[in-house]
Hints:
Shape: globular
Number of helices: 9
Structural class: mainly alpha
Amino acid sequence: MTPRLDFIKASPEVMKAVLALDATSRQLSIPLALRELVKMRVSQINGCAYCLDMHAPEAREAGISQQKLDVLAAWRESPAFDARERAALGWAEALTRLEATGAPQRDYDALAAAFSPAEQVDLTLVINVINALNRFAVGFRSQHPARAEANAH
């Protein structure tokens, strides 16, 4: 895959605005580990290798186990996730796949049962920011660095 455009250099003010939203989301009520879990799942759905590569180490540093990361794509079938994580992941999937889901009531009900109104809004910001970043990275074909261990086989 060939990179299309360095969007940060092309319009630094846009990225400054998006990163300001990201910085705001980091100061709100959603704990770091849950934010990273949501970022990983949204990036999986959007096929953003750049963001997955960036957030996997951050997720592990935030205390998310490797097993949880390994089964994240199949979180609905895994006992590794608690009710709050399930509600957040369901809401993240519903909003990321909005054209297909329409943000169904069952996902909102699970969200509302596990999160306060302020937390619901805060989590929605986290989901929106990572979706925006995924769309920049995938759309302009950003490349993550290849590590030596990835090419060891």
